[in-house]
Amino acid sequence: MSSEREFNEIITGLAKKRGFFWGPSPEIYGGSSGFYDLGPLGKLLKNRLENQIRSSFVRANFWEVECPTVSPAIVWKASGHLDGFIDPITQCTKCEQIYRADNLIEEQSPGIKITGKSIDELTEIIKTHDISCPSCKSTLGPVESFNLMLKTRLGLDQEAYLRPETATTTYLLFRRFLTFFRDKLPMSVFQIGKAYRNEISPRQGMLRLREFTQTEGQIFILEEDEKNWPQFEDIKEDVLPLLPYQTQQKGESKPVKMKMSEAIKKGHFQNPAYAWCVHLTYSIFKNMGFSEEKIRLRQHFPTERAHYAKDAWDVEIHTESFGWVECCGIHDRGNYDLTRHQEFSKEKLSVSVNKQPVVPNVLEIAFGIERPLFCLLDNSFQPENKVRDTDWLKFPPEVAPIQVAVFPLMNKDELLGPAREIFDSIIEAGFIAQFDVGGSIGKRYRRQDEVGTPFCITIDYTTLEDGTVTIRDRDSMEQVRIHRDELVATLKKVVRGLIRFESLQ
Ligand SMILES: [Zn+2]
Questions:
Q1: How many angstroms is it from 134 CA to the middle of ligand 1?
Q2: Which of 84, 179, 261, 375 has the smallest number of Cβ neighbours within 10 A?
């Protein structure tokens, strides 16, 4: 546990020093926990992850939308968040500190089952197990429910809430989607945008935020199409690291590498459309740069799921900082959401099947971007060693905040001119690049290693003679000379991983 803590501090320290994230924000006023600022490199990294997510969804035939982040109370009444999106809290009777009751019970009496327990039952558990205030050891008050939504108002007096998820705002567009998709189901859409949760004393830094960026993909689908999903054919031979709940019941925490077709046959997935969503999510996380060994797909126990959910799997990423971290949920939400919004809005949210009105089901992929961002920093960290006198970051080239750095060997006009031209051509090709003239080449390499830039280009006096430049590879620290005319095409290949750097030599 202590080594996990230390590692988290190393990552957070590095993130602050090198401009990935700062906080809690606003720092100069003491900071509010659960809020962070992204520095220049954090913002670049987040953009990279968003682009990978976006292109993964678009390739899978999803369309992107954007909805308001504030909605009137009735939306959240209908969605169930007003009554159900709550944490059980308890206050110390002496020092008045507020805690999450379930967390306190887990910390002080591990092993007690708390999922699904009512407020009164939690109060009883605190009494009978002598759970006390962690800071002053005094008695705790009765457990109360605390709604996690941030309340605001529209105009003078209309009650409204900042959205706790993007999903609900996507569902409200169902009728518009029907028109856009020419009444053809299934319809696949996604949204990337801010969501807000008023967490009680969030303590895990970037992992538990009050304001975060969510990505949620939704497929509106009829039950018969869930069973008959032709795209499953494309992925049925793929092997994924699965941890079904029956495996967890046996005390196993290691995923089983299993073909998707086999997982269906064994009944781990109820239908091929849902299984395909789990596969899509896995591919999104791979595209964000996570290696296979760091990913596992964990099924929820039936008792863990929301009452309306038919099935739920999480993507978990292994970190040195916190062990396995839950990063994404994939849910079969049934037709709960559309049914509720139909009831509250009095608008028809059904389609006609054999002349009967049918409310479609929803398959959902939901995750916040900040968690994978933290996990990627954690996974990319490389400590200094004999070869390198600095901690460095081994980002996969495609998601590195800066992909290419360009150095004129010296700050001289005859080198600056061609270096600028080469830099411009790299930017034009769509890379994020940095131009650096400060200090020795060794120091410049070191600075780029610290922020995880995979490739550095140096323009020297040989460039003026024969038009070649050097490319230096971050991981091997090797250099090769190639002609400047081939530079952009070569960079495209090595950044995308289409060819290995070693093959250039
Ligand atoms: Zn206390």
A1: 7
A2: 179
